[in-house]
Amino acid sequence: MAGSVSILLIYVAVNVAHLKLHRLTGARPFLLWLAVFVSLAFVFLLIGYEGQSSPNALISLTGVFVLSFVAEWAYRQRTQRVLQTRA
Predict the structure, then answer these.
(1) With 0-12 CB in 10 A as exposed, 13-18 as middle and 19+ as buried, what is 26?
(2) pLDDT tens digit string along 55-84?
(3) Whole-number Å distance between alpha carbons of 53 and 47
């Protein structure tokens, strides 16, 4: 379950980034927005299903998610790295 949600969230992030660059790539914003919303809908459906059928999996997913953000924050604090955005 964690793998499925992670892949879907990565797919959402890629599509949101593509939205920012759609003028450079020639993509249609409507299709990108559609992909974002459909992917998010599947994330919420999967989370809802897992919450009903396997609450422990949902607790594990939440723990992994929190742990990954804490690890990323700690890494950036330790290395003083800063994300650079495109202009």
Answers:
(1) exposed
(2) 898 888 889 889 999 999 999 999 998 878
(3) 10
